[in-house]
Design goal:
Leucine-rich repeat, LRR (right-handed beta-alpha superhelix), 5-stranded antiparallel sheet, 6-stranded mixed sheet, mainly beta
Length: 674
């Protein structure tokens, strides 16, 4: 009987051990890292329909970890949005939820190519030659694949199989967390909202780049609660660096403070005991080098430029009084979204080239009372509405306010002697401006294509350059009381609203295109001092119906009165010796021209499509070329007459009796009989 009882006892113990071992093996498989591949052909347990479920255990309630992802014993990334992070888990469990996609690879190259083509948030289960499986998310693969397969030749363990899917993390004790990997806070290309990170005592290893400046630049406080000195390592070099490389302040337990500073001497100035309040350094949103702001690093739209600054221990500009800000450099606010900038409290002496170019939101600018220089294109194509230049300003660069289409009010410095090329060109809202008495010169196109309709001319100003007031909105121009002696080409051209012009007797010539395309010009008084009219001087002045030329005029240029369609008569002084081609071409209303001297051969097409009557007061002409319709009775015996063959000249007995007719192309040529 005892033998039978003993045999039964042994059998029971064997069964218990067998079931216990199976349970342990099943639990081991949960760890994933070295588990054997389950037999895919094994049948799942069968539950009979209608079976007894009253005694089934309640399903395990899993609490999911959503802010963190892991790799084995390390935190690999943070996905949360909190500003203060203090929830790093000490342990976790995980579950792989496969998708239907499964990919097979026969060699390492094709495996790598596939891995790097996938989305960074994808998760995988990888099996090498049916021996081992791992779970990971990109881009970790390149760093850890050799750990998966050992130190042997990786090509010997292919083929590899990848099962796509998702890894979920839960509260649990399957994995103990003791380290932070590189780039833990690299979400959204190194941007996150974390300003303070509290690290629990279970974290004993941290990659040197886990929260380094440049990767999570908003983390300005890290608190380490470990009871021993946390080891910082570098994944890339494998070395233990002397510099923690956090770019911020690290707080540790007081009893470990000296050991930390000894271990990481380069970071000693950033390591403090927990509870210590570091004096706050207010960083300025600028890069400042030797008093010059070279870059704007902020995002504010309303800026106040301070007069001084200091430097933090890491070389950044902070509030302070150690150094003076004297200049804003080239391109600093180029295409920025700032709306207002106030320099009134600063000691800024210079604004650099293109400093605010294209700042399409910049409406208000208050300048420093110390400002002396405004650079080339400084405010061009910005949205400024007004500008008041302090009297300290002595120099403005070319095109400084070019195409400031919203600029409607300008106060100039009383220290300025000149305005440069294109300074206020294309300022379509600028209608009036007062030039200081110190201004002695204006640059080409200074106000071109602006809406200027009113301006003063100080006595110091003696010339107006090329295009200075071209395409503006003048209705009248009166230079009679000015000291202007010289007008540049196209000076008042394309002033489409201009109706009246009065010039002074200091002006000796009207240059090329001076009043070109002034469609509304109907009245102009040209003083007797003017001796020449340039090419296209009154081109397309279609409202000009009469003009009195000065008696001392010696020349007028090509197309001088071209398309002056309202001009009805013209008396050309005897002093004129130079005639421009097409001078009166397409003057459709011109019916009377009086020429009181011997012009020689008149240029081609001078009166084409315009003249009906010509009166010649000089009887000593040698030759005359007049294409058009002629009243022959007004001729005074010229030696040669040319006119188009379309003119009906056959009935004029006077012409036939005194001239010999020949034909040259489209012209009848009459030569006086000897």
């Amino acid at each position: 009987m005892k033998k039978i009882f003993f045999s039964i006892f042994i059998l029971a113990m064997t069964l218990c051990l067998a079931f216990g071992s199976a349970y342990i093996i099943k639990d081991w498989d949960i760890l994933f890292s070295t588990s054997e591949i389950e037999d895919s052909n094994s049948d799942p347990p069968v539950v009979e329909p209608g079976g007894d479920t009253d005694n089934e255990p309640e399903p395990e309630q899993k609490v999911e970890i959503t802010d963190w992802t892991f790799f084995e014993n390390s935190v690999s990334s943070y996905k949360g949005t909190a500003e203060v992070v203090n929830n790093i888990p000490s342990s976790y469990s995980m579950e792989f939820i496969p998708s239907s996609e499964e990919v097979q690879f026969e060699d390492l190259d094709s495996l790598y190519e596939y891995i790097y083509s996938q989305n960074i948030e994808s998760f995988y289960k990888i099996t090498f030659n049916g021996l081992e499986e791992k779970y990971f998310s990109l881009p970790s693969f390149s760093e850890y694949v050799f750990l998966f397969v050992g130190s042997g030749d990786i090509s010997t363990i292919f083929p590899a199989k990848i099962q796509l899917g998702e890894v979920k993390y839960y509260e649990g004790n399957d994995f103990e967390v003791d380290s932070l990997q590189s780039q833990v806070f690299s979400k959204d290309f190194y941007e996150n909202n974390v300003s303070e990170l509290i690290i629990p005592e279970n974290i004993k290893n941290i990659d040197v780049n886990a929260f380094a400046k440049g990767r999570s630049e908003y983390i300005n406080k890290v608190v380490i609660n470990c009871n021993e000195v946390v080891k910082f390592t570098s994944v890339s070099s494998g070395n233990d660096p002397e510099d923690i490389n956090v770019g911020t302040n690290v707080y540790v337990k007081a009893e470990l403070l000296e050991e930390y500073k000894t271990t990481y001497p380069q970071s000693a100035d950033h390591i403090f005991p927990i509870g210590y309040e570091v004096p706050e350094e207010k960083y300025l949103p600028y890069v400042i080098e030797d008093g010059v702001i070279t870059a704007y690093t902020g995002s504010a739209t309303d800026l106040v430029i301070p007069s001084t600054y200091s430097l933090s221990s890491d070389g950044q500009a902070i509030e302070g009084s150690d150094y003076t800000i004297t200049e804003i450099g080239d391109n600093v606010f180029k295409f920025s979204s700032i709306e207002k900038i106030d320099m009134s409290s600063s000691l800024i002496l210079k604004l650099g080239n293109s400093c605010f170019v294209g700042a399409l939101s910049l409406k208000t600018v208050i300048l420093s009372n110390c400002l002396t220089t405004i650079g080339i294109g400084c405010f061009s194509e910005s949205a400024i509405e007004t500008i008041d230049l302090p009297d300290s300003v002595i120099e403005i660069g070319k095109s400084a306010f070019f195409w400031c289409s919203a600029l409607n009010s300008v106060t100039l410095s009383n220290s300025l002697q000149s305005l440069p090329y294109g300074c206020f060109s294309m300022c379509s809202s600028l209608t009036t401006i007062v030039l200081p008495e110190t201004i002695s010169s204006l640059g080409e196109n200074c106000f071109g294509s602006s809406s200027i309709s009113s301006i003063n001319f100080p006595d110091s100003l003696t010339s107006l350059p090329y295009g200075c007031f071209g395409a503006c909105n003048f209705v009248e121009i009166d230079l009679s009381d000015t000291q202007i002696e010289t007008l540049g080409e196209d000076c008042f051209g394309s002033n489409e609203l201009l109706t009246k012009v009065v010039l002074n007797d200091l002006i000796t010539s009207l240059p090329d295109m001076c009043f070109y395309r002034c469609f509304s010009l109907s009245s102009i008084i040209i003083p007797e001092s003017v001796i020449s009219l340039g090419d296209q001087c009154f081109d397309t002045c279609s409202s000009l119906n009469s003009i009195i030329l000065p008696s001392a005029l010696t020349s007028f240029g090509e197309a001088c009165f071209y398309r002056c369609s309202s001009l009805s008569s013209i008396v050309i002084p005897a002093s004129v010796r130079s005639w421009g081609k097409n001078a009166f071409l397409f003057c459709e209303s011109l019916s009377y021209v009086e020429i009181s001297h011997r012009p020689g051969a008149l240029p081609t097409s001078m009166f084409s499509y315009s003249i009906n009557t010509v009166v010649f007061n000089d009887t000593s002409f040698y030759s005359l070329f007049l294409p058009g319709y002629i009243d022959y009775d007004l001729f005074k015996n010229p030696s040669v007459v040319k006119f188009k063959s379309s003119v009906d000249d056959g009935s004029n007995s006077w012409l036939n009796e005194n001239y010999v007719k020949t034909i040259e192309g489209d012209y009848n040529v009459y030569t006086r009989k000897v």
